[in-house]
Amino acid sequence: MTYKSLVPMLYTEHIDETIAFFTTHLDFVCGEKNDSWNWAALHKDHVEIMLAKPNSHVSFVKPIFTGSFYLKVDDVNTLWNRLKDTVSVCYELEEFEWGMREFAIYDNNGYVIQIGQEIV
User: Fold this and answer.
1) CA dihedral angle for residue 31, residue 35, residue 39, residue 41, rounded to 10 degrees
2) Mind listing the pLDDT tens digit for each residue in 64-96?
3) Are 92 and 3 in contact (CB under 8 A)?
4) N or C: which end of the chain has fewer CB within 10 A?
5) How is residue 5 annotated by DSSP?
6) How far apart are CA 54 and CA 10, in angstroms?
7) What is the pLDDT confidence band of residue 2, given thresholds at 50, 70 and 90?
8) Among residues 113, 106, 118, which one has the least CA distance to residue 47?
9) Sign of the torsion formed by the C-alpha atoms of 76, 68, 10 and 46
10) Which pLDDT value is given to residue 67?
11) Domains, the chain, ranges and CATH?
12) Is 45 left (phi over 0), alpha (psi -120 to 50) or beta?
């Protein structure tokens, strides 16, 4: 058996606003949206994210995730300069001893999105 991919499903009460955040700020494309399912699928290059309004099978009070979503990019400086004044910043662009130059932002739901590039 081979695992093919891992696609996060982000729960949100605000699907349209979340689509707008990812398409406006991070250049994702909304490839599919189904209002009757309260669901959408976004993609950018090799990254996929699904959005859904929680259904009755899931206990949901507010968006919560005890980690972050880490996006590896090939030009972290350009993305930082474009985003730093338009989104809520978790931490600013910096270089880390593990060989990454990265920063982190919050999406409209409060999820942490780290964005980094390997230092060469």
Assistant:
1) 0
2) 778 899 999 999 999 999 999 999 999 999 999
3) no
4) N
5) -
6) 9
7) confident
8) 113
9) positive
10) 87
11) 1-55 (3.10.180.10), 64-120 (3.10.180.10)
12) left
**Which residues sit opposite 11 in a β-bridge?**
52
Tens digits of per-residue pLDDT, 18-57?
999 999 999 999 999 999 999 999 999 999 999 999 877 7
Whether 24 contacts 42, CB under 8 Å? no
Q: Is the CB of residue 36 less than 8 Å from the CB of residue 30?
A: no
What's the CA gap between 111 and 51, in Å, rounded?
12
Q: Which residue has the higher pLDDT, 10 or 3?
A: 10
105: amino acid identity, one letter: I
Cα atoms in the 13 Å half-sphere on the side-chain side of 76? 22
* CA dihedral sign of residues 37, 18, 106, 43: positive
